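Hi X.,

You mentioned you wanted examples for the new student's onboarding notes, showing what a folding record looks like when two proteins sit in one file. Here is a clean example. The first protein comes first, with its sequence line followed by its structure tokens.
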Amino acid sequence: MPRSPAGRTATSTADLALSRRDQWVPTHGEPHNDNQVVGACGLKMVDWESLALAPRERDYADLIAAGAGDRLRPDPAMAELFALDWRLSEIAEYARWFAAPHIGTDDDHTALEGLHEELRQITAPGLPGPP
């Protein structure tokens, strides 16, 4: 099984997360810009279908990518675990898409590009994708 930079496997990192269940918080799951609405009462999060109790790092991916990691002080192993969880769930969605009948529509081509990108991120993280 592949090891993280910290030398842990995904399984041992998941076990670590489970051992800290008393520290879990409600997490949104997809707190990116498209799920944020600013109104008269301030910023609101919408689309709570992915709500779960989990380590706080579950919601940190976009913030870490934006350079806020130093202020958040995430556990790197937990951040990596949820990045992997996200990628695997995306790959599973694409697998369901392609398991159903499809005829090569623009949506099918877009989904195939998305699948290739997710697989590339797992096999060669950090490398830029095709233009």
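Then the second protein repeats the pattern, sequence line and then tokens:
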Amino acid sequence: MSEKNYETSELKELKDVLQTFTEFVWEMEEYLPEFYHFFDAMRQNIEIFLRVGEEDEEQIHEILERDWEKAHAPLVGVQCYDFKEHIRRRKQELVFILRIF
């Protein structure tokens, strides 16, 4: 397999993972955290790159690195997000709703 095909397959896999992750956050949150937008931008940039058939892989990697760094910004990045707390809160909301009925 040529290096370009390997790179393209990696990008497709990354796009799929980003799609799954952004859908998870979208469904879980009433207000989207700031990092969500950068991960979604990464997914969209990969999609554009693949559809256009661009061959400058260095450029897409620079764009993805830029968005990755922004998604990990101090205080608002994904590393500061408490997924357990948000899942616990959603479970409490569900229990409350079920008690009403």
